[in-house]
Amino acid sequence: MRTIAVAAAVVGALALAGCGGGGRGSDGPLTVYSGREEELVAPLFEKFTDATGIDVEVRYGDSAELAATIAEEGSNSPADVFFAQDPGSLGAVDAQLEALPSETLDRVSARFRDAEGRWVGTSGRTRVLVYNTGQLSQDELPASVLQLTEPAWKNRVGIAPTNASFQAFVTAMRLSLGDEKTEAWLEGMKANDAKTYEKNTPIVEAVASGEIDVGLVNHYYLSLVKEEQPDAPIANHLFEAGDPGSLVSVAGAGVLSSSDQTEDAERFVEFLLSEEAQQFYVDEAEENEYPLVAGIDPPAGLVPLDEIHGPDVELTAFGAELSSTVELLRKTGWLS
Amino acid sequence: MATAGRRPPPALALLAGAVVALLLLPLAYLVIRVADGGGRALDVLWDRSTLQLVVNTVLLVAGVVVAAIVVAVPTAWLVTRTDLPGRRVWAVAATLPLVIPSYVAAFCLLGFFSERGLLQQALGVDRLPDPTGYWGAVAALTLSTYPYVFLLAQAALRDLDPALEEAARGLGVSRLRVLARVTLPAIRPSVALGSLLVALYVLSDFGVVSLMRYDSLTRAIYVQYKSLFDRTPAAVLALVLVGLTAIALVFELRARTRGRLWRTGPGAARRARPVELGAARWPAVAWCGLVTGLFLVLPAGVLLYWLGRGISNDRRVVVPWDEAAHSLGASALAALVTVAAAIPVAVLVHRYPGPLARVLERLSYAGNALPGLVIALSLVFFAARYASPVYQTLGLLVFAYAVRFFPLALSGLDTGLARVSPRVEEAARGLGRGPLATAWLVTVPLVRSGALAGAALVFLSAMKELPATIILRPIGFDTLATEIWGATQVGAYSKAAIPALLLIVLSAPVLWLVHRDSGRLAESGG
Fold this sequence. Notes:
The complex is a heterodimer. Chain A is of the alpha/beta class. Chain A has helices at residues 2-20, 38-52, 63-73, 87-92, 102-105, 164-177, 179-191, 200-209, 221-228, 262-272, 275-283, 318-331; strands at 30-34, 56-60, 81-84, 97-98, 120-132, 157-159, 195-196, 214-218, 234-237, 248-256, 290-291. In chain A, strands 1, 2, 3, 4, 5, 6, 7, 8, 9, 10 and 11 form an 11-stranded mixed β-sheet that branches. The radius of gyration of chain A is 22 Å and the shape is globular. In chain B, helix 9 runs antiparallel to helix 10 and helix 19 runs antiparallel to helix 20 (435-464). Chain B is built from 23 helices and no strands.
């Protein structure tokens, strides 16, 4: 009896193995490595297949881990498209990306794409200060991120120093205000006992629970946490024009130069910038991101992108600047 | 050891050697990456912060090992050697936390103890101590690892010949001294092996240190990969982890070989007569209740609370059956493959002890403290370059599980084979059976429970495995673990609760199988 049960289990497992190992090849489906969460972008892939008839296979993962995977795969990467959460991950493998057609690139303002055209932003997000509406009223909020080192904010601020989005913001501060001022700010935050978190979501949750009063995060985590806790007393606050604290960054995509389906891959990136896909961010996406193509209004309740004047910096430079940023974070004791 | 010094058959030695060589692939990858980095590698090694990371990591390992022993050994003794009320139930409850992934354990502990968490809401107080950091990491890791020590200590206590303890009692030694001088030394090798498994787990785990914000080597390795995209420092730090594994192995070997006890009399061991607890039974029950409450009821309760909150917020409840099938299938294959691969090594170690066996066995642990991400990337490197047909297939994922969980299978077979005297096999040979027939008729039935236990441990670990699964799974091959990960990525705990609970419910019967089998074996005196 036991033997039969074991045999049945083995056969079952092998059958599963059979359907698990999907085939690859030049005429197979398009392979996308997505650092963006399935929860948020899966409908986009369906829309693409509906519109073009091209099947898509998606490998979901963490953007940085997928970048590391692509780097280890080298020229044998099965990926055709890399759809990433941040310019840093795209920049890390830009040597393995090919230049995109200019019609695709031109749909997006130059500040949201790679200077050499190897990747393009597909949706936007701003850095904000999320705050607890029970603890703070709007007129108590700081005009600049630099004020968070004042004694009044001691013990009240949450940040995520190991997170890519926070590091991008520090890069922005370095590029706009210089290393010295940034170092002083980081030390000031240390002296002010800013609390550290691994990611944006726990910061917003901590603000919602009153553990801290404010946190430096991307704007859309607010709506994600509200989804889970509809009554959470939280809101986003934008810093003044030109402040590094209101950096606008992007999620983006690029085509692998090792792809044997370049044409389909380019169509996919083009699709991400189509009216349909951009409108998806406005109407359907849980995440409340900004569309980047001109003429499409952002979701209700968001300050339009062209009214947000973040620091005057080039996103393309971020990849190369990252190691200096991390060095500075290390020096000021934010990273081990 | 009658067989000491016998030369192993070449085929067996070759097979065991090939298995261990495959297990060392991640190490080869790290060496390649470090060599790529050249002089920079040395800078990382001599950096002051690296030393701090090593200290932090050692402190964490020590803390969790001590905590796991303190929780596991008394509980194991109570449920196997006393008349504790409900001891069967407590025994099962004490092993169940093994099915809770450590990152889920950490989420649950945080959800309960964190500021404005469930506990604070319930108590209505203003402030609770911060649950993150060192103690939070120790708590979450103890939860997920103490069952290793518990299972091995329980088996050792059950199989220990009561004659030794009775002899000591007969000589007028007090019960407490018998416990300290006879019983505990006798189970020390098992506790040492359990502690080694705990230590390796702690060294490799990323989820807990990340959620608890504790700066260990593993967390630093992730930071190198994730924010710097720099593979040289990550590889150097990973090799430091391998160095720490070597130290843990030395400790374990010393504890294992000191004070080993063999039974000398012929025939099967009797079961020990249970110690009557008397008035001490209620504190004993309270102890088991505390262990179960903290390590099983609490995390399960938090998950159920999240599930309930999701339902009351009108979140759609979708049961991930496909993902569950994927988890079960891949984990079953992993259990089968890993135990099969461990057999030649285990046989070599137990039947042909010598330098070769010792070196191979120790080497098979070398990659085990490496974080899943490092193992995954090393297999990406080799497979994408040199074995592209298997890249991103289920086969490679199962292979990664085998690399990560090999020592679990080996430890199961170890305990099984240690109990089979080579003389029984020699008797069969003497009666005219060939070596294969002997193995099939004598050895296999006798080590079955050990092999089954090893397979179960691998199965349960594969069910929970996340970092290597994310990277190496075939496209679209979602598992329960990746489902949990996907939901927690966006903070959707009510959504994560469903796959987490399903993972626990589906894993639990496997533990029951182990319990039943070893119980039956003990009853039949085997």
